[in-house]
Amino acid sequence: GVKEQHVAWPAQYEENLQCACKNIVQYCLEGDADLQFLLIGGELVKIRSSSWKKNRFYKLQEDCRTLWHESKKTFRRNQTFSIDDIESVRKGRQSEGLKKHTDPSVEEQCFSIIFKGRKKNLDLMAVNAEEANRWVSSLEKVKTTISNLSHQQKSEHWIINCMRKADKNEDNKMTLKELKHFLRQINVEVDDTYAEEIFKKCDKSNSGSLEGAEIKHFYDLLTHREEIDVIYNKYAQTQGQMSLRDLLNFLLNEQREQATAEDASKLIEKYEVDETAKQKKHMTKDGFLMYLHHEEGSILNPAHIPVYQDMSQPLNHYYISSSHNTYLMEDQLKGPSSTEAYIKALTKSCRCVELDCWDGANGEPVIYHGYTITSKVLFRDVIKAIKDYAFKTSDYPVILSLENHCSVEQQKLMAHYLISILGDALVTKPFGDTMPTNFPSPEELKGKILIKGKRLNKLDAIFNNNNTIEEGTVSEEDEAADCENGQKKSKIKLAKQLSDIVIYCKSVHFSGFEHAKDSHGFYEMSSFKESKAFNLAETSATAYIHHNMDKLSRIYPAGSRTNSSNYNPVPMWNVGCQIVALNFQTPSKEMHLNQGRFLTNGTCGYILKPEFQRSLSSQFDPNTLTQGPWMKRKTFYIMVISGQQLPKINKDKHKSIVDPLVRVEIYGVPADNASKETHHIENNGFNPMWNENFQFDIHVPELAMLRFVVEDYDTTSPNDLIGQYCLPLTSVQNGYRHVPLLTKRGDVICSAGLFVHLMLLDAQ
């Protein structure tokens, strides 16, 4: 056979453990000045408050994955955090802390490290602007290098790290005891006889410890994927390798792809690691594993990753990723309000955010959760944050849903801030010279911000020269009337300046579908509390769908959800509601479904609704399922084969090793909702094998979401979530596929994954 090569394990790694641990990031950035800058490190001022500003030394550790900084607290001399935990590095006084505690004159010297999840920002100041720029660009470079590592490199890196931790006495050799510690680190329980067996097999020199090439051999034994050998050997019909023709057979027969010889050739060119094989247009087992671990081998159809849908339909023909109480970082009663929460939601491609506006001190309007003790944040600061971050991850329009409790004076100031800060981005009049009859498209509204709120008159007034009302009373926004404290619906005065910038999203009270059809323009929209919306979705689904063909609907969680929990968004999408607002700050199954729904189409925050929710002749009802274009019956076969490197959940329990099980869930129309789970496997998170088959009957595939949940089985208490992944069923690729896994918060778990076989076939 051909000599096996691992592209991600260059020859110089083989000398001893020290070399084997030579860092892959260093390897990618060999001799890079920015990397050297970080490895040497330097003094920065850490800023916590106006009075707490202290010099601290920061440097990148040798593994190029961890940033170390000194700490003056006696019980923790040194503190570290992983580069993987960084969400972004922001130049300038961009965080709330820096804006509050530093002077504008040091703008150029400041930067912030923003972490994933709820960890507090790290606010820092360098000696001068040049130094600050150097820190920002260097950290970004290392972060990008790490995120660009292939799955193969990441898992090898993961193993090297664990090996290093296991080498307790740092002699670059591994004894049997260290080997057992290492296996526990990577979540594999082996009994003593098995551990000795691997050890003896690798200890060619009979020295009682492993070093150099023996460690490489040990690594190969560990990463061996039996299930992939079986598939590879079935198709490798040419001198023990896959020829171009063999690979094409695999793509056509197993992966059910419309592949050509040219496609197979491109895959060999892209993923084959052995040059000799590449020249022969062959694919070795290593190349095959590489292919399976990249996007072509992923469960998510690569054609659906960029914006692939028609973006020129009216705005109300799309589901729109939407957040409720966007200003909250935690719960509804006492959590902090923050501009940071807006930035986090917008950079996750949320396209509709909520601003709960109240009169503040010094005539300045503020945003917070009224009648509660959540902290307050200036309206002006939130609008600035929105201006800066609205279009970082998506060019498509953002809707600001205003819940207005302010006096007329402060409303005038709100209008002034919206107009002056947002500038050209703000839509202040309808497109065209005549009264429009329906919405512009997301394409036409690229880079634009729309205001949703009350308006004193109809939109036609703009074209009839009739727009002269100075101010008037309107009833408060529905949701405010739904206040937790049971206040009665009140009337408020509305300033003309604020009324005038409400164009395509005028808030009106809902008095039934017939009334809306007869009395409301396309731009007049209602907000529905979840209980009301669910009731309508059950009793008048078809009418609701038709209402949403012409207008926008916004759904929001019940006021009783003071802990910021969420409702299931799927029944709302089933009846064509566009703005299904969820508490983005709460990691939950409902947010996983939202992330899955908006995962495709360039994660731009807009997904085109199915044709049967847009076509006026449609009589679709998700609850009764009569025949119609929505009925595309499918049988979905799935085999859960294996898992890779599932992380330990309870890091504190020294000997805790996971007992993983996989649950496969379908969410869609009621008839399609289903859930099936595998048995659990005892004590193996490293390479558990389930080989279990499931079958699901699907009636309306265009509304179905597929969710994988991996849990750590526990007899005595609820299972812990290990990881999850959710995507639209119509974006699933057939065949043998890898499934990435995300944390509860929705961040990728680097080396973990599932390996499955899928078939979505027309029902017989």
TrEMBL record:
Q: Which cofactor does it need?
A: Ca(2+)
Instruction: Tell me which residues make up the C2 domain.
Output: 614-743
Looking at the UniProt record for this protein, which Gene Ontology cellular component terms does it annotate, in alphabetical order?
A: cleavage furrow; cytoplasm
Q: Give the subcellular location.
A: Cleavage furrow; Cytoplasm; Membrane
The answer on whether this UniProt entry bears the keyword Lipid metabolism reads yes
Q: Name one GO molecular function term.
A: phosphatidylinositol-4,5-bisphosphate phospholipase C activity
What keywords would UniProt list here? Calcium, Cytoplasm, Glycoprotein, Hydrolase, Lipid degradation, Lipid metabolism, Membrane, Metal-binding, Phosphoprotein, Repeat, Transducer
Enzyme class per UniProt: hydrolase
Q: Which reaction does it catalyse?
A: a 1,2-diacyl-sn-glycero-3-phospho-(1D-myo-inositol-4,5-bisphosphate) + H2O = 1D-myo-inositol 1,4,5-trisphosphate + a 1,2-diacyl-sn-glycerol + H(+)
Pfam families the record matches:
C2 (PF00168), EF-hand_like (PF09279), PH (PF00169), PI-PLC-X (PF00388), PI-PLC-Y (PF00387)
Question: At which positions is Ca(2+) 4 bound?
Answer: I657, D659, N683
Q: Which residues bind Ca(2+) 3?
A: N325, E354, D356, E403
Q: Which GO terms describe its biological process?
A: intracellular signal transduction; lipid catabolic process
Q: Which residues form the PH domain?
A: 37-144
**Active site residues per record:** H324, H369
What does the entry's cofactor note say about binding and number?
Binds 3 Ca(2+) ions per subunit. Two of the Ca(2+) ions are bound to the C2 domain.
The topology of this chain with respect to the membrane is:
Peripheral membrane protein
Q: Which CDD domains match?
A: C2_PLC_like, EFh_PI-PLCdelta1, PH_PLC_delta, PI-PLCc_delta
Task: Cite the PI-PLC Y-box domain residue spans from the record.
Answer: 498-614
What EC number(s) does its UniProt record assign? Answer: 3.1.4.11
| Main subcellular location | other
State the protein's name: Phosphoinositide phospholipase C
